């Protein structure tokens, strides 16, 4: 039989390493804030790159015309066509196409990836209806959402710093991704100009601001995790150019690379990091984002199964396969509210080939998911609280003050227990007095519309 007392003891020890009481989260938020300062002071001053986006004006609602957006940065890429109608019309019409990226292209040749993208974009552009055609002589314009760290040289150019989230194409590092995309579009005979290169966090912020003028930050919780926010340009000491007229600049934090001795890192996280494509990098992202949560759960279950026969006398072979348990499946397990945990049983069978689990074992699997998901959600809340502190919105200067955080990404959108815990934790950090003046909103596909809006407001058509 299974010695559940021993299992619980082992689990309690893992849980204690993952624990994030309020005080510790506040320390993590302060550490994030300190790193933000350091990253704004000088290039290379911090693990947080605090990248300039060159987006220094936010949408007004007056944006008009037909614009394209392309969103590349995870498992899928999307192409989008938006018809903007100004203050009255808003988003008049919108159309999109989603294509999954063949895994071999994520680790192959640079040109192959961009050719694949340009080909899909070209197919999509060919479907333009008559009413959406641009006037004769006008070139199509595109906002390119590229969700990897980029050293931006201008609004419409930037070089790739490094890959994340399972992409690894060595030869692309240091290249201008807009130039690569432009060459690929030319090879397709596609007449389109890249007007803006934006990170998905920046797009989410801008798309969110279009709907709500109190949006101050954009956060991605999807395959990866990152955030962007509106900073006062005068505080960016590493910026030596002219100050923008607005006095503001959107900063892409690249918070996925945040690291601190305060982070609750276990042996499971260390082993996963060690075996990853980018060891030592993106440590915060590996604790928080959808690409990794299921994998951490798998590693915990494997360790327990190696010591105690929770899944039978032999360790299920599939449980030894890295990344076999994906976060959407973990989410399904975690949300099972049936008395006999039917969905948990089904998933264990389907995904891990484990049959006939007892209710106790199923409950235990749910507990492991709960630990990993809540650690992630609480850390994400601490990151957001760090931003709120940095921009001075953790106290009230005016009773009507409202701060909105626009969030997008499959993890936030679909993993309800995660999103609820994130919201609750942020309120816990803000305290009674402030908790109602900060609001989280789901910016559904804001990053695509955001990129089109940026292209529109910087268009020379
Ligand atoms: P990307 O981050 O790749 O641009 P998305 O924002 O759509 O794309 O996020 C996709 C990610 O969200 C997946 O990789 C997965 O980790 C997570 N995800 C998707 N669906 C769910 C779900 N039902 N439950 C939990 N996580 C999910
Ligand atoms: Mg995305």
Walk me through the structure.
With 461 residues, the chain is of the alpha/beta class. The chain has 2 domains: 1-53 and 211-444, Hexokinase, domain 1 (3-Layer(aba) Sandwich); 59-198, Nucleotidyltransferase, domain 5. 44% of the residues lie in helices and 18% in strands. Strands 1-11-10-9-12-13 form a 6-stranded mixed sheet. The longest helix is centred in the C-terminal third of the chain and has 32 residues, at 359-390. The site of adenosine-5'-diphosphate has 16 residues, from α10, α11 and α14.
Give the N-to-C terminal Cα separation. 74 Å
Indicate how many domains the architecture comprises.
2
Q: Helical percent range?
A: 40-55%
Low-pLDDT stretches are: none
The coarse silhouette is: globular
Topology:
Elements: H1 4-18, H2 22-41, E1 51-52, E2 64-72, E3 76-85, H3 86-89, E4 91-100, H4 103-106, H5 110-125, E5 140-146, E6 150-154, E7 157-160, H6 177-187, E8 192-198, H7 200-211, E9 215-221, E10 225-232, E11 248-252, H8 267-274, H9 283-288, H10 290-307, H11 327-334, H12 342-352, H13 359-390, E12 403-408, H14 410-414, H15 416-434, E13 438-442, H16 446-457
Parallel strand pairs: 2-5, 5-8, 9-12, 12-13
Antiparallel strand pairs: 1-11, 2-3, 3-4, 6-7, 9-10, 10-11
The site of magnesium ion has 6 residues, from loops.
């Amino acid at each position: 039989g299974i010695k559940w007392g021993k299992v619980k003891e082992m689990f309690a020890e893992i849980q204690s390493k993952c624990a994030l009481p309020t005080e510790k989260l506040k320390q993590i938020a302060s550490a994030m804030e300190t790193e933000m300062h350091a990253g704004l002071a000088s290039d290379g001053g911090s693990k947080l790159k605090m990248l300039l986006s060159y987006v220094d004006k936010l949408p007004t609602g007056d944006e008009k015309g037909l614009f394209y957006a392309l969103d590349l940065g995870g498992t899928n890429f999307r192409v989008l066509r938006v018809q903007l109608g100004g203050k009255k019309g808003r988003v008049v019409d919108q159309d999109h196409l989603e294509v999954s990226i063949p895994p071999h292209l994520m680790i192959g040749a640079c040109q192959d990836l961009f050719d694949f993208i340009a080909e899909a974009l070209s197919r999509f552009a060919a479907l333009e209806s008559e009413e959406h055609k641009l006037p004769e002589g006008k070139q199509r314009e595109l906002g390119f959402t590229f969700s990897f760290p980029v050293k931006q040289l201008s609004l419409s150019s930037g070089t790739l710093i490094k890959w994340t989230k399972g992409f690894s194409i060595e030869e692309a590092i240091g290249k201008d991704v807009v130039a690569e995309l432009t060459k690929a579009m030319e090879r397709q005979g596609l007449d389109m100009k890249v007007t803006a290169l934006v990170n998905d966090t920046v797009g989410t912020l801008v798309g969110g601001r279009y709907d709500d003028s109190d949006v101050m930050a954009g956060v991605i919780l999807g395959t990866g995790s990152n955030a962007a926010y509106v900073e006062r340009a005068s505080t960016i000491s590493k910026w030596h150019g002219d100050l923008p007229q607005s006095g503001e600049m959107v900063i892409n934090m690249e918070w996925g690379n945040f690291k601190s001795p305060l982070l609750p890192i276990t042996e499971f996280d260390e082993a996963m990091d060690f075996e990853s494509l980018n060891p030592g990098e993106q440590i915060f992202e590996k604790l928080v984002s959808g690409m990794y949560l299921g994998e951490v759960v798998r590693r915990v279950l494997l360790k327990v199964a190696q010591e105690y026969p929770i899944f039978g006398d032999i360790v299920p072979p599939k449980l030894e396969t890295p990344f076999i348990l994906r976060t959407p499946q973990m989410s399904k397990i975690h949300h099972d509210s049936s008395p006999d945990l039917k969905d948990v049983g089904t998933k264990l069978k389907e995904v891990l080939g484990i049959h006939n689990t007892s209710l106790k074992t199923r409950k235990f699997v749910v507990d492991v998911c709960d630990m990993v998901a809540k650690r992630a959600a609480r850390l994400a809340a601490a990151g957001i609280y760090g931003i709120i502190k940095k921009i001075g919105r953790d106290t009230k200067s005016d009773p009507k003050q409202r701060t909105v955080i626009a969030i997008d990404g499959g993890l936030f959108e679909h993993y309800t227990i995660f999103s609820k815990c994130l919201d609750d934790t942020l309120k816990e950090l803000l305290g009674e007095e402030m908790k109602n003046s900060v609001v989280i909103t789901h910016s559904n596909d804001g990053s695509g519309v955001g990129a089109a809006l940026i292209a529109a407001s910087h268009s020379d058509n």
